[in-house]
Amino acid sequence: MVKLWLNILIVFTMILTCSFASDCIECPAGTYSNHSDISCSNCTAGSCTDTKDCVPCPPGFYSADSGQEACFECERGYNQSQPKKTECKPCPVGTYGNKTQLLLCELCNPGTYNNITGQTECVPCAKGKFQSQKGRNQCLDCIKGRVCNETGCDVCTLCQAGEASQNALYCNPCMPGTSTSGKEGYSVCVGCSAGTFCSDIGCKVCDDCKKGEYSPYSSSKKCLKCNIGQYQPKVGSRECLPCDPGKYQIAHAQSKCINCPPGYFCPNTNSGPIDCPDNAYCPENSASPQTCQALFVPNNASLARYCIPDTILYVTVAISLAMVILIVASLAFAIACRIHKNKILKIEESKSLLPSMRKPVKNPDYQGL
């Protein structure tokens, strides 16, 4: 109770003093008086004075100590979103602050990063790395088959068809004998399969070997030509086919063999036809001359395609027929003669019996009544 009256007395005395004095004492910077105190008070940390009262530091400002005349703005790389704060916060990783009085730090843009707090700018991604999202604290390596050959990439570029990359910096063209099969994003070029080839740098796809050509191995830079005596009717082949017996081919890189013509024979598939011998015949596709059977001869008038009967055969047949006819006639004559002779014998026998039958009887016997 005594203390209360003492305070009232002090206030009353101060009012009387200021009322009758020529002027009041102004509170120094960083202090304030609300007319109820006989002395000025320091503003608390996080605020400053406007000579009448302490006001809180607004967002983007701070006051670290008490008795501050003014609040300080947040420096670049720092921010403060709340009022009446004693410090500004450093921008976290993945953000930056390039202005003062920031309420919030800005996110690092794609293609940049920040792995240290309190930074005023973000760092571009190095070559061979990328970052496609905002507010990241690191960049990522480009995967094989994709590249970034400059700083600040937000995406890695696919290697085009006919190119490949393993170092994330440059796409290298495929060497002859390899390709990417027409696709993008290859880390290595693939060797052409057997039956295909690529003779240039940067092949997107390997080409099929033509008809009459072949490629027995992978990664071929060119196709090989079929040798003489061989052929290949299809594209994209890994081998040539031998000509069948009776056919031949004397040129390289051919898609078919040639039939050996009639009147000729072809013992080798890699050389031309040979005339058929006079004593043989050679139909089409003959690998060797064929001999006619006995009593037959080649039909030379029609390029010896077949055998025909020899002249001696006709003579032999005629003689044989004549002999058969003569034999048959002889047999018939002999049979006829024998039949005639038998008839004569029978007639003679009949005549020899007739006189005895006609001789009269001397004393005939008569019978009857």
TrEMBL record:
Pfam families: Ephrin_rec_like. It comes from Oopsacas minuta. Gene3D superfamilies: Tumor Necrosis Factor Receptor, subunit A, domain 2. Keywords: Membrane, Signal, Transmembrane, Transmembrane helix. The chain crosses the membrane at residues 312-336. It comes from the Eukaryota. The keyword Transmembrane helix applies. InterPro entries: Growth_fac_rcpt_cys_sf (IPR009030), Tyr-kin_ephrin_A/B_rcpt-like (IPR011641). Residues 1-21 form the signal peptide. Residues 65-100, 212-248 form the Tyrosine-protein kinase ephrin type A/B receptor-like domain. This is Major surface-labeled trophozoite antigen.
